[in-house]
Amino acid sequence: MLDQKLLQKQQQKLSPQQIQVIKMLEIPTAELDTRIKEEIEANPALEVDDTDEPDDNQEKLDSNETDSDSDNGNDDDFSGNDDDGSPSETDKNDEFDIDDYFNEDEYSNYKYSVNNTSPDQENKDIPFSGGNSFQENLKSQLGLLNLSEDDMAIADFIIGNIDEDGYLRRDLESISDDILLLQNKSVSVEDLQRILSAIQTLDPAGIGATSLQECLLLQVERKTKTPETLTAKAILRDFYEEFTKKHYDKILQGLEIQEEDLKAAMDVILKLNPKPGNGTADSYAKTINQTILPDFLLENVNDELVLSINSRNIPNLKVSKTYVSMLQEYAPTQKSNAKEREAFDFIKQKLDSAKWFIDAIKQRNNTLLSTMKVIFDFQKDFFTTGDETKLKPMILKDIADRTGLDISTISRVANSKHIQTPYGIYSLKYFFSEGLQTESGEEASSRQIKQILQDTIAEENKKKPYTDEQLADVLKTKGYIIARRTIAKYREQLGLPVGRLRKEL
After folding, report:
1. β-strand pairing of 317-319 with 435-437
2. What is the mean pLDDT of residues 322-335?
């Protein structure tokens, strides 16, 4: 016998407009321009407003301004649609109100960019040189080597296997097998080593090394022979393990030198480049590509901090007047045929989509700005002074409670967003941290404790650096009760080595 049950479920569906708003929140400013261009290409009813009008609606935030345009943060509030986001049947049958698309104040005059240039100022593109890769630079130097045509081809192949740091991390036997497979040439490991040694004489010094030790030795050997460089070479060649572990006593005993001689040699070694490939055009290009475009600007104007959205590269948008006129022309009547009604529905859909997209950007900016204002108020001590120790413990829920937004919305706002302050550019995630209780019962952010830990290590006696247990004791004297494991975790997050490896002469 079949067991039949009546199961009732409650599901919440997001309309396309709601989904659009959510997706817009996740987009950082660096990608928003691309997203707008894609929408303009897909929707002919959406246009760029090229009119040069005074920027009366630029979104600025001062201490007395409260943004209520986001409907108390309810970015999921849309009306007049079914659950799937499409107009209801009732709406379809009602007479279409053409005046909805003549509200220029609402849709065409919204400012997304700052116009702070003179009318006669010429826009100029600044070209960047692409430069050559360090492999190309090495290949251009091959003509300086006394190599045969066959050796030149092998050298070219070896250079192609050098990684971006300038190292040859593949063993020569594997390279020999590849040459045999790809070029049908049998090359011995000895010949490969001979050609590799020739490549290692090229610039920059240290290129083509198979290990860090070899890289440093190649650089030292090119320096003028002085007592310091000779000692440095001996350390790297004969006492490399002791050097990496900072066992200076063993080096002093093994080389029979004085502490001053060791210091001079260490100065030579520390000035060497452990990644000779990083100073090339490739690295420069990476630096350019990784330039951060801030989403918010915090500027000091007349000794007052002013917060705004960075929208300088975002065009102004408006609904196409041409499509509005077409909608009037194809307005359905009793005499309208099927094609005319189809054309009307198409135009109306494009206009609706354009209006929704403009609304989504407005709502995005309102939500971003209102959220950032709360973060600013919460961390006002930091934004005023730039002192990282002034950062308060702050989690997503703290901001969600103050804005009335959902935690997931705050997470989307904070994700991949940055703010430019008078003290530098910070990720919004930087301001979120868990709190630890001090000896006095107050809360201190983990960011603050990390800063104190970093300062403590910077001020320690480098001849006798603190262990993690000693660091915990030092912080305890300052009122921060932290376990040794937590100290070790924070130290690793800061990229600081253990006490033994921080030892200096």
Report:
1. unpaired
2. 79
